[in-house]
Inverse folding.
């Protein structure tokens, strides 16, 4: 036994020195480090299809443009992300880009990047910093605006009176907070529209379903006629719950959510959901255009909105402001099939 | 066996140190700039809070207990400070309040564990849920600490600039200071030795007249303080607070302590070890980031393997030293 | 006024009266033996004196003033040090720390001074004429040394009263002698010593006075010289001397054995025991004599497969076997009642019933279970047979006294109807009454044709009970005596070499 | 006397607290206890529509699995879809909050069964959450391969081949348990650390299996596990009951229970009594792994997809809480399966109550923590003794016994 154990342990020790310390190329995916501009990118994590899609799009774009990409996954932890950025600086990349886990807490590390004269491009989420110029540009969506659009859609389609059940994202996360903010901002001046239920579904299907079930059992259950989910996953979970309750999702309960993943499109196409506000993950190409510009020393705008649409079962509704209108697209089979994620 | 005089009890920790340098070497060989002092310094900057948390964890584990509330307390204190400061309260007051709460909370946990002999795992688990919830009550949203005199003082004046981009930050100095104090405390004070005694054999400790109850409660109090201090450091480090941060950090801390050569059964190990435990974990992470191709899930698997190997090593050593003592 | 005086001490445990008004006193400069069966209340009394428990009633006077110690530390500060039965020290800390912990010498700043600590530790050990490396971990020393370290620790405060709770149970002859030397030396220095033991001759060897407890009550205190041994025993178990003589009388050496049950040729384990031959016949009681650490327990462990042997062969009833785990031994109907009851014997939180059926069930395996009824019947049977003092088989075993726990363990193994029964120190730490009963029982079992291997550090028992004795010294077999040659003298000669 | 009271004393406090919680709901939450009998008809169309949903997703997945042959995949899937009717036996099923509590609590209950045995041996298994993820991942992967006909056994047709992923998941989970057992029993590593390894690495492995994606599926067989109904109750409840009965028989009708308790109480002595302590411990980890597998399948089936990142996240903690609330000591020894189930239900009821009462998601954890501590205090003999001595130091004498 003892001898045997010893052998095993020795073996394990060996495994470490191979796995832990070598760069274990066996595990690394297809070579993504080109010979061009050295870019360090720190992704939030791999927590959802949406995130996965955006990672894919970045890696592909990097390959196309022959970017020397150092990619790091923060696993939803700000601490990891900051470590990553610091290491990018020490490693001496030419451009740093990352999609912040949260809005706050990046000030110092951004200052360091500035000291080291490395331009920073934000991706998908903004950060709030006291002094300007800590990052050169921000590409991506505006969570608050997404919330607003969802709100406007409800106003436009459900009318002045609606009892909304809200599936909030992970408590404290930027998208959850902003989307809620935006949505409430709109319905604020429509007294008929009330949020009668609001509970966190952690951005996951399981929670979305579990919470929706409890909503449907609650005394107010029958009044609920609108569901606003902070992302598609929760909405998809909720749809199952609604069906099991013997109600018709999309008819008895109007369903609006945000992200625009393929599965959601299908749901809308089948009339089981009504609207999804796109939050486009596929802005890798856009990102690297900007980076190349930066590298070439050109100026780039500080805020680059990603082209995002709103998809629903009706179409042709303006969910933007009168100033900059955004009209919804009606989902068709083509649109569904064209979705890659 | 008899030949080499090197005491068995130093083997795990020296192995950890060895591994640290081996990994560091490999990093230097495989990546340019890996050897730059900056990387080394950042290792401390980025792990100071974890290190301080690990000190508390180490002490608790030495008594044979465990503390799962670490991460939550960090999140709570950081958000509390951020909230108070951003709503115009003096930073020093905020910090001291946060520390006080940490201490009290630790004390409460220790009291529950000792007086009602509840399993530490359970109490601190509940504590973890509780304090995390409190964090969300303070604020669901992450809050930045903007242009606060105290924080900018710490940021600008308490940082030693060793060169371009080479900043020895206050938090690093603080961490090292706390570490030294903790080492000294654990080896050169009666209270410190009592911690070891209890972890080694609680009954014997009682019969030898060691104040078991007091020591236990004290240890959890210290752990609470360390976590709170880690939270303060975290707030300084990020200039922000976020109730979502440091989820599952307690596991990193435990891993660090174990890798640092401390046995979870208690009584055996060194606070000093936690330093290298933390550094090794940080280094592995740095390696993976520098490599920049490994998938996140591989990171997890590698860390898991790492822990495994260290456990095996310790296991082996304890076995050997046991058989040694038998042969006497 | 005596150094220590207790008046009408009482102690309740959840309704059970452990002590019923004990008056007890110890003078300075005497060695005072505290005697009594298990459950008589000795350890309870000690624990009250040293402040482990508070007394339910009564008062303790020490040094003339009444005192209520809240903790052992408290008592220690007042000058009462205790060395407990099991070595209660910290294996993973250094010897020096074990001696000094809680009272380390400190620098002006109030920090521990490691150098001073070592000095202090060496001084304390020197008092017992021990010279070892004090910065080694305690666990790297033998039990005996650890025991002496514990005593050194106890002496390392200015202690007026030293309490030794069965200090000799894990020491061998010479070590005991050493200990006694120390005790006498301390007596000269005017220290009072309370000495608890089950080895009667030891009592007479060192103690000046003897106090006897029975069922939590004081029987009396006597000067050692005018209390004949037999009478003391009588007082302890509440019987008359003649009754005891009868108990001893039942024993006869029988000589007609069945065929060989177990035979081992040259079994050994490097570092533990050098190869020996052991064989037992049905109905024979084989004794293993020798000092502690001479290898007697080690042989038992090897036979039972706890420690694998790395040389030699064994046969059970003619079939060659290889016990490398207790399971195998048990399946082959070998039973071992091992040395340390608490660690290797009882399952404290299980009921007496469960403790009794455990081994049998284990040998049957997981699937062949006994109905609750069968279990209860079995438990009842043995509770009666072995006169286990308990209201029912559903009591948790941890609530029994040592002697009764030992009986339960014997029951556990009898239930497996073993062919070979190994008893390793079955009589250690249990009272005279139970001892006699157990001795008688083993005799009876032999009569019924069971092979028994009997290990005891009390040579009288071995000599009295065994039909053949293998004598061991320094992990080697040094001789074997059988039948009429078995006498204390012969055995001693062999042991001494 | 002693015996029976011992049997049930541990159940008292968890049951009391559960009762209080339910009472609270009965008073303050209208129609908390409203249970209606639904006829399957009402759900059938829904089920019908469920079918096309996610389907192309499965196809999409398949496509993702291999770029080739995207075309014929939908047809394949279509056929699989056709047969996914009859989600309930007997057409009728109960519907209401208490049912949800049971259905949602099923995962933790199943986990708690395994966890109880492990804790009874004085161990702990903090890797079950990760193992759940692994089990869900492998099942989803296989089913998507089968749907795409890219895996042997696809010939059986969707109404049968779901058995393959289920078996695979259970086997894999059991292997994981075996691994833990090996570390703990084989190498004598502390359970906490030993299982920490798999806890850290396990989720990684799961993501490795699914390549970090959320794999959705719609196979009637798999979906039925947690969404179907049988004999009026959700099928998951029946799974729990079966597991509980099996575990009960296994531990109480064989000597396993006795051995586990004996090993947990004094391992060395148990070995001396001829019990193969190592094997017993090992076995409990294997069982625990298996339970985690079942729980993982339930989790996946519940949302018709495998979400490696979130499946079973922190459920190990709930399982441990359930066990301890149920009266099993973390020090090992006596164990109470029924208690653990009650504990699990208590936790789930608490969570559901929060949702129903619209408690702000922020503070949900706070009351949970409090309830846990309170129940555990009530369970702790020391606490009881202290309270007793406070209230009636005289009566204490009679009080105990």
């Amino acid at each position: 036994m003892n001898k045997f154990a010893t052998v095993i342990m020795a073996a394990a020790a060996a495994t470490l020195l191979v796995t832990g310390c070598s760069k274990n190329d066996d595990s690394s995916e297809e070579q993504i480090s080109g010979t061009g501009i050295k870019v360090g990118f720190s992704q939030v994590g791999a927590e959802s299809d949406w995130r996965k899609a955006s990672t894919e799009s970045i890696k592909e774009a990097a390959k196309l443009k022959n970017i020397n990409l150092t990619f790091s996954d923060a696993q939803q932890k700000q601490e990891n992300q900051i470590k990553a950025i610091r290491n990018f600086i020490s490693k001496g990349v030419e451009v740093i880009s990352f999609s912040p886990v949260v809005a706050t807490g990046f000030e110092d590390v951004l200052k360091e990047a500035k000291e080291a004269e490395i331009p920073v491009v934000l991706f998908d989420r903004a950060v709030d910093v006291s002094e300007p110029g800590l990052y050169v540009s921000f590409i991506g969506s505006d969570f608050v605006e997404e919330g607003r659009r969802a709100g406007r859609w409800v106003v436009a389609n459900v009318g002045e009176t609606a009892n909304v059940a809200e599936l909030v994202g992970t408590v404290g996360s930027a998208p959850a907070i902003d989307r809620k903010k935006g949505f409430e901002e709109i319905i604020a001046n429509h007294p008929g529209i009330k949020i009668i239920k609001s509970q966190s579904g952690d951005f996951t299907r399981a929670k979305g379903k579990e919470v929706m079930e409890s909503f449907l059992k609650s005394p107010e259950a029958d009044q609920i006629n609108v569901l606003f989910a902070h992302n598609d996953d929760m909405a998809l979970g909720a749809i199952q719950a609604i069906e099991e309750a013997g109600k018709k999702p999309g008819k008895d309960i109007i369903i609006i959510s945000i992200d625009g993943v393929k599965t959601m499109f299908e749901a809308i196409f089948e009339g089981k959901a009504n609207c999804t506000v796109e939050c486009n993950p596929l802005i890798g190409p856009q990102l690297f255009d900007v980076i190349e510009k930066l590298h070439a020393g050109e100026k780039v705008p500080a805020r680059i909105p990603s082209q995002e649409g709103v998809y629903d079962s009706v179409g042709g509704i303006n969910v933007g402001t009168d100033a900059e209108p955004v009209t919804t697209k009606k989902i068709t089979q083509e649109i569904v099939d064209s979705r890659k994620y | 066996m008899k030949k080499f005089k090197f005491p068995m009890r130093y083997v795990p920790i020296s192995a950890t140190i060895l591994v640290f340098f081996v990994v560091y070497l490999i990093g230097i060989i495989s990546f340019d700039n890996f050897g730059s002092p900056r990387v080394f310094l950042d290792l401390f900057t980025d792990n100071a809070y974890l290190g301080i948390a690990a000190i508390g964890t180490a002490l608790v584990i030495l008594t044979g207990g465990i503390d799962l509330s670490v991460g939550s307390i960090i999140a709570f204190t950081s958000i509390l400070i951020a909230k108070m400061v951003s709503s115009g309260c003096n930073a020093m007051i905020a910090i001291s309040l946060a520390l006080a709460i940490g201490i009290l909370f630790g004390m409460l946990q220790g009291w529950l564990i000792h007086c009602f002999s509840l399993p530490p795992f359970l109490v601190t688990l509940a504590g973890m849920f509780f304090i995390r919830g409190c964090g969300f009550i303070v604020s669901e949203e992450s809050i930045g600490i903007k242009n606060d005199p105290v924080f900018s003082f710490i940021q600008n004046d308490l940082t030693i600039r060793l060169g371009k981009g080479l900043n020895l930050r206050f938090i690093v100095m603080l961490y090292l200071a706390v570490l030294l104090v903790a080492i000294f405390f654990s080896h050169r004070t009666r209270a410190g030795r009592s911690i070891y005694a209890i972890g080694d054999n609680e009954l014997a400790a009682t019969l030898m007249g060691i104040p078991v109850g007091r020591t236990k409660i004290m240890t959890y109090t210290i752990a609470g303080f360390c976590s709170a201090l880690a939270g303060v450091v975290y707030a300084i480090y990020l200039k922000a607070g976020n109730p979502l941060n440091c989820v599952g950090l307690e596991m990193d801390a435990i891993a660090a302590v174990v890798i640092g050569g401390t046995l979870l059964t208690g009584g055996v190990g060194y606070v000093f070890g936690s330093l290298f435990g933390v550094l090794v974990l940080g280094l592995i992470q740095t390696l993976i980031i520098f490599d920049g191709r490994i998938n996140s899930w591989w990171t997890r698997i590698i860390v898991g393997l790492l822990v495994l190997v260290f456990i095996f090593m310790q296991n082996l050593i304890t076995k050997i030293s046991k058989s040694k003592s038998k042969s006497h | 006024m005596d150094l220590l005086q207790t008046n009408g001490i009482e102690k309740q445990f959840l309704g059970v009266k452990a002590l019923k008004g004990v008056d007890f006193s110890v003078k300075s400069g005497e060695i005072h033996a505290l005697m009594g069966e298990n459950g008589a209340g000795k350890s309870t009394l000690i624990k009250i004196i040293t402040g482990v428990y508070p007394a339910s009633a009564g008062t303790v006077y020490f040094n003339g003033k009444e005192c209520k110690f809240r903790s052992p530390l408290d008592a220690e500060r007042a000058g009462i040090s205790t060395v407990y039965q099991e070595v209660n020290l910290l294996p993973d800390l250094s010897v020096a720390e074990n001696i000094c912990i809680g009272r380390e010498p400190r620098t002006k700043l109030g920090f521990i001074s490691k150098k001073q600590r070592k000095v202090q530790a060496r001084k304390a050990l020197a008092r017992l004429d021990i010279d070892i490396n004090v910065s080694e971990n305690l666990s790297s020393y033998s039990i005996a040394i650890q025991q002496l370290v514990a005593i050194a620790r106890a002496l390392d405060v200015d202690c007026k009263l030293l309490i030794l709770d069965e200090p000799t149970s894990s020491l061998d002859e010479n070590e005991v002698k050493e200990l006694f030397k120390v005790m006498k030396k301390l007596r000269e220095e005017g220290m009072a010593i309370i000495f608890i033991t089950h080895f009667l001759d030891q009592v007479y060897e060192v103690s000046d006075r003897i106090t006897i407890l029975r069922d939590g009550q004081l029987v009396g205190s006597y000067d050692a010289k005018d209390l004949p041994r037999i009478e003391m025993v009588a007082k302890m178990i509440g019987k008359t001397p003649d009754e005891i003589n009868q108990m001893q009388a039942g024993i006869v050496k029988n000589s007609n054995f069945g065929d060989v049950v177990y035979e081992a040729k040259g079994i050994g384990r490097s570092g533990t025991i050098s190869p020996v031959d052991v064989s037992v016949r049905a109905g024979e009681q084989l004794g293993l004599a020798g000092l502690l650490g001479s290898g007697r327990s080690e042989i038992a462990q090897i036979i039972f497969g706890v420690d694998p042997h790395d040389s030699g062969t064994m046969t059970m009833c003619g079939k060659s076997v290889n016990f490398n785990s207790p399971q195998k031994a048990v399946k082959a109907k070998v039973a071992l009642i091992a040395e340390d009851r608490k660690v290797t014997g009882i399952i404290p939180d299980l009921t007496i019933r469960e403790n009794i059926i455990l081994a049998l069930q284990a040998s049957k395996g997981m699937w062949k279970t006994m109905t609750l009824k069968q279990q209860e019947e079995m438990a009842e049977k043995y509770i009666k047979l072995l006169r286990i003092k308990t209201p029912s088989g559903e009591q948790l075993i941890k609530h029994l006294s040592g002697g009764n726990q030992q009986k339960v363990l014997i029951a556990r193994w009898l239930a497996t109807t073993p062919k070979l029964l190994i008893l390793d120190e079955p009589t250690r730490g249990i009272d005279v009454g139970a001892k006699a009963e157990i001795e008688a029982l083993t005799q009876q079992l032999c009569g019924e044709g069971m092979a028994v291997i009997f290990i005891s550090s009390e040579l009288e028992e071995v000599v009295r009970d065994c039909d053949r004795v293998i004598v061991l010294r320094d992990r080697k077999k040094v001789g074997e005596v059988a039948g009429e040659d078995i006498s204390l003298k012969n055995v001693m000669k062999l042991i001494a070499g | 006397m002693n015996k029976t009271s011992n049997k049930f004393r541990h159940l008292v406090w968890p049951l009391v607290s559960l009762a209080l919680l339910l009472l609270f709901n009965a008073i303050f939450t209208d129609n908390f206890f409203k249970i209606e009998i639904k006829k399957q008809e009402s759900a059938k169309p829904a089920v019908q529509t469920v079918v096309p949903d996610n389907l192309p997703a499965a196809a999409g997945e398949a496509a993702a699995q291999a770029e080739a042959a995207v075309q014929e995949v939908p047809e394949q899937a279509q056929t699989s879809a056709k047969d996914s009717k009859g989600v309930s036996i007997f057409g009728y099923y109960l519907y209401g909050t208490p049912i949800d509590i049971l259905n949602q609590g099923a995962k933790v209950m199943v986990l708690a069964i395994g966890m109880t045995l492990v804790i009874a041996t004085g161990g702990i298994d903090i890797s079950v959450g990760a193992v759940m993820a692994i089990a869900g991942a492998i099942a989803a992967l296989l089913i998507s391969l089968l749907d795409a006909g890219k895996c042997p056994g696809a010939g059986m047709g969707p109404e049968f081949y779901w058995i393959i992923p289920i078996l695979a998941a259970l086997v894999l989970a059991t292997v994981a348990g075996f691994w833990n057992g090996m570390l703990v029993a084989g190498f004598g590593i502390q359970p906490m650390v030993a299982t920490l390894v798999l806890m850290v690495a396990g989720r990684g492995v799961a993501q490795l299996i699914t390549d970090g994606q959320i794999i959705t599926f719609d196979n009637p067989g798999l979906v039925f596990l947690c969404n179907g109904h049988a004999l009026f109750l959700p099928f998951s409840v029946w799974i729990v009951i079966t597991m509980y009965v099996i575990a009960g028989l296994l531990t109480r009708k064989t000597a396993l229970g006795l051995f586990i308790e004996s090993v947990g109480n004094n391992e060395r002595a148990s070995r001396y009594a001829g019990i193969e302590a190592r094997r017993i411990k090992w076995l409990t980890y294997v069982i625990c792994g298996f339970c985690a597998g079942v729980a993982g399948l339930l989790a996946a089936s519940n949302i018709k997809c495998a979400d490696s990142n979130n499946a079973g996240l922190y459920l190990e903690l709930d399982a441990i809480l359930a066990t301890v609330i149920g009266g099993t000591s973390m020090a090992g020894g006596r164990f109470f399966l029924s208690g653990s189930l009650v504990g699990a239900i208590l936790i789930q009821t608490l969570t559901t109550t929060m949702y129903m009462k619209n408690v702000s998601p922020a503070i949900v954890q706070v009351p949970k923590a409090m309830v846990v501590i309170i129940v555990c205090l009530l369970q702790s003999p020391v606490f009881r003794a202290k309270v007793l001595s406070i209230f009636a130091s005289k009566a204490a004498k009679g009080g105990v016994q």
User: Anything to note?
Assistant: Confidence is low (pLDDT under 50) at residues 1-31 of chain A. The radius of gyration of chain A is 23 Å.
